[in-house]
Amino acid sequence: MEQSERQKKIRNFCIIAHIDHGKSTLADRILEYTDTVKQRDLEEQLLDNMDIERERGITIKARAVNLEYTADDGEKYTLNLIDTPGHVDFNYEVSRSLKACEGALLVVDATQGIEAQTLANTYLAVDNDLEVVPIINKIDLPAADPLRVQKEIEDVIGIPAVGCPAVSAKTGLNISDVMKKIISDIPSPKGDENAPLKALIFDSYYDSYLGVVVYVRIVEGKVRPHDMIRLMNSGAEFEVVETGFMSPFNLCPQEELSAGDVGYITASIKDISDTRVGDTITTAENGTSEPFPGFKRALPMVYSGIYPADGSKYGDLRDALGKLQLNDAALVYEPETSAALGFGFRCGFLGLLHMEIIEERLEREFNLDLITTAPNVIYKIVKRGGETIMIDNPSNYPSPEEIEIAMEPIVNASVITPVEYVGSIMELCNDRRGVYIDMKYIDDTRAELHYKLPLNEIIYDFFDALKSRSKGYASLDYEMSGYEESRLVKLDILLNGDMVDALSFIVHADNAYARARRICEKLKDNIPRQLFEIPIQAAIGGKIIARETVKAVRKDVLAKCYGGDITRKKKLLEKQKEGKKRMRKFGSVEVPPDAFMAVLKMDE
Amino acid sequence: MDLGIYIHIPFCKRKCNYCDFFSRCDLKSADAYTKAVTAALFEYSKLCKGRTVSSVFIGGGTPPTVGKDNLLSITKAVFDNFSVDKDYEFTVECNPETADGDLQKALYSSGVNRLSFGLQSHDDEILKFIGRRHSAKDFQNAVMTAKDIGFSHINADIMYALPKQSKKSLEDTLDFALALPLDHLSLYMLKIEPGTVFYKTQSTLDLPSEDDVCDMYLDSIERLRKAGFYQYEISNFAKAGCECRHNLKYWRGTEYIGIGPAAHSYFDGYRFSNPKNTEEFINSPKILPKDHADCKKILIKEAEEEYIMLSLRLTRGIDKHEFYRRFGIDFDEKYYKKLEPFIESFHAKKTDVGYALTPKGFLISNYIISDIIETE
Question: Residue A439 pairs with which residues in a beta bridge?
């Protein structure tokens, strides 16, 4: 197919990297280099718009930016840089972002080498026919070993890396090499500008004035204001209000977007769930008949109950979740009621990181005090009589006699680790009911382990345990492989004889006793002494399998108030009062919100 | 109006291992400090026209460390500048080893009528371990000297929950003290505070268990009662009529002014305190409530909380009629529901006039009070 002159001057690319390998810093340098952003305007890691992203140094949502670049020969190019999320929770979003590009810069840390997500994302890029341009970063660090990393890229990934740019995104060293590579190695886009419109949605966000702003890659055809468009998967139709390019600070309206362009469309869309990432946009009439393959709704993998610590804030929590969902179609929630915690929501997340981010945003941006129950995966139960149900809340788990087959989700996990930690990590995987598949040596120093692991074993603290066993060096990637039969039991917790539904959870039968004991101990440490002795019990069905006791308070007194210093006593009592206010009352037992989190952190 | 004066002497020869009160071991500025105190007394006296001083307490620190002459000029300044009630109480805190007969005599002649000695324990090994520089014998001598000079009001401070202290050891300490001519005992639970020697070494300390500490407290209350010392406050015991009036001012919402660094005042409806800085006090003593950085007007709502919090430290407890007179609120209507569970569990009880905590309740008074009071 003929390429237009315009298309020849376009490069659409993304940057892929493992967390901390310097993806966002490199993006900043490219922005700076192309004068898209003056240095003084540049907040560290500009592409990450959210505070949490900036603090955690990770990208949660894809962001795209349009850059003008004048090459050394004086030719002007349009570069579209699409930043991709770097966490396994967001793999689907990564895959859609890649579809909008012709090439990917693969950033590898010169001190760390290839990590699990580097591999996963590179394979994803290769599968999407992207030209992968390796870049070795952090060469300013004393421990940098660019030659070893270069060899690793060639040996492990199998892409040529000789002569690849070796840069320091931090100091700006050799960024011009990167720019040259983008122009020389990344193919310019193709696509018939006169064919029916075919555009891929790779991101969207809600703006209170414009409605949903949809980020698209135009693959074929053109789109301009007043066109009637149709979202092929959702079937929704809209009249385009505006089309344009994304600059780092604002949207720049353009008369039209045509094949090869990366840009945005607004169409007074009110509901972000109409604009799912991966969907195809075409014209309402005479549109393309072939949507992009592979569209799927990002499905929540992890569920947890979120409750306001102060019951009267239920309405605020509902509004806050609604606002977050405007920008995050992957977040699902529905009201639920807990006998213990009152009114709240059962929320579904892509993974644990996604869950933490949502919690943090609720607390920070909406100033809410939350009680979060232990996260759980979705279990599949075949009941006697053949009915299959999905359980996203332990409270709904059927009693043992109703269950024919219980199944839990299993993932294929890949761990890359320095070889000296292999033993310890295998032990960890075995502890978590992992099934060994194989192990490959990446080079003399590092190995890649493959395990089948139950998802519910890795959602709590697997990642932390992995990091602590490998001094931070091991990395993890996983993908769902399906459901497998498992011996599961529901563990209930009783305080002072009353079951606290919010503390119930599902566990593999073999681990039930150990977990039960640990949870009872944890709760004992987290529930302050009260007027009466409080028995803490863990039970399966009606059978108590573990017990601890919180002794009655005997001593809590300020014996001396010297020289009339009663302000100190007053402050102490006020603090104590505040602490009590935060507690939840179950029968006669008061439980601080932290106790609910205790169940999460069992393996300390 | 009734007024109490507290004068802080922020000097010690050596700080005890458990002590977190404000004191320094550098005695160089003792004279300058004394001048600042007398000057402050003079300034305060101008604000206190119309008030009658019924109690004075010189504490520390170790007051005798400033020397006899300095102490006497302070006591003199009190009598010279203030209108002092005929039936006053004037206490000076002394350590057994620093209060010889000469000093005691001089204090007695200057108008001091009550002495408070720190005994802490009768066991010399424990005394040494907690950083005291006297023996049980020194204490005995000091008390007998005081008695001979004519002091009829003598207090001993005793501590429990000390490292290496057994229940038996505490019983022996009480018996030792009860055999002496005392009319008041303060029984303080050791609390390990930040900034003390014990705080740093606490993991190595051989401390009695929580249950033992509670038993020590409850058993001591019984033991003292049998010996004619009645508990009137969480940590204070006295023969009938010999309660420390100055101490009671703190719990009854009576006015007191505090002179010296770290000293607290409740005056004219304000609570305030001096900074913990001796030099600052010497150079620019602050007098007016509003000159103090932490000055706070106690409004009616807060006064109500204070009343509950402070009254519940006393065996006399809350007086519903007094409560109604002061706040116009029916105590039962507003608070009984919250107090009820504690009455049922014998941590609190009804009295003729209202409610009080029991000894078992005193031990968890923070827990109880924080349940009862309301905060915004």
Answer: A449
**A-contacting residues of B 248-277, CB under 8 Å?**
249-250, 256, 258, 262-266, 271, 273
Structure-token match 């941590």, residue found:
B347
Does an H or E element contain A415, and which?
strand A403-418
B63 contact residues in A (CB cutoff 8 A): none
Dist CA A182 CA A366 (whole Å): 41
What does the alpha-carbon distance between residue A85 and residue A598 come to, in Å, rounded to a whole number? 30
Radius of gyration of chain A (CA): 27
Band of residue A38 on the pLDDT scale cut at 50, 70, 90: low
Cβ of A563 within 8 Å of Cβ of B263? The answer is yes
CA–CA distances in Å: residue A275 to residues A230, A288, A297, A331, B284: 10, 18, 11, 14, 70
pLDDT at A586 over 50: yes
ipTM comes to 0.88
For residue A230, the Cα-to-chain-centroid distance in whole angstroms is 29
Q: Taking CB atoms and an 8 Å limit, are A555 and B213 in contact across chains?
A: yes
Task: Looking at the complex, report in whole angstroms how far the Cα of residue B69 sits from the nearest Cα belonging to chain A.
Answer: 24
Beta partners for residue B357, in sequence order: B348
pLDDT in tens, A559-571: 776 667 888 888 8
- Segments in B91-209 forming alpha helices (H): 101-110, 124-129, 136-149, 167-178, 197-201
Q: What's the token pair of residue B343? A: 């009455």
Burial class (CB in 10 A: 0-12, 13-18, 19+), B190: buried
* Per-residue pLDDT tens digits for A128-181: 889 999 999 999 999 999 999 998 888 888 888 888 999 998 888 999 999 999
**For residue A179, what pLDDT is reported?**
93
Q: State the smallest CA–CA distance between residue A582 and chain B in angstroms.
A: 13
The answer to whether residues A302 and A462 touch, using CB atoms and an 8 Å cutoff, is no
8 Å CB contact between A306 and A370: yes
Identify the closest residue of chain A to B347 by CA–CA distance. Answer: A531
Closest partner residue to A573 among B256, B265, B370, by Cβ? B370
Query: What is this structure's pTM?
Result: 0.67
The DSSP call for residue A544 is: E
Kindly provide the b/e burial profile for residues B30-50, where b requires at least 16 CB atoms within 10 angstroms of the residue's own CB.
Answer: beebbebbbebbebbbeebee
Strand partners, A408: A484
**Burial class, A495, CB count within 10 angstroms (exposed 0-12 / middle 13-18 / buried 19+):** buried
Q: Do A554 and B214 touch (CB under 8 A)?
A: yes
User: For residue A411, which of A454, A465, A448, A354 has the smallest C-alpha distance?
Assistant: A454
Helix (H, G, I), strand (E, B) or coil at B203: helix
With cut-offs at 50, 70 and 90, classify the pLDDT of residue A302: confident
d(CA A276, CA A329): 7
Please state, in angstroms and rounded to a whole number, the distance separating the CA atoms of residues A232 and A235. Answer: 5
Helices (H), A328-376: 352-365
B117 at interface of A, judged by CB pairs closer than 8 A: no
- CA closest to B210 among chain A residues: A555
Token pair recorded at residue A221 = 């055809």
List Cα–Cα distances, A567 to A416, B18, B103, B250, in angstroms.
57, 21, 34, 11
Cβ atoms of residues A548 and A523 within 8 Å: yes
Cα(A326)–Cα(A33) distance, integer angstroms: 34
**Which residue in A570, A575, A574, A496 sits closest to A530, CA to CA?**
A496
Which of A530, A554, A578, A581 is the best substitution to test chain B (most B C-beta atoms within 10 A)? A554
Comparing CB atoms, the residue among A531, A563, A573 nearest residue B6 is A563
User: Do the strands B2-9 and B52-60 form a parallel or antiparallel pair, or are they unpaired?
Assistant: parallel
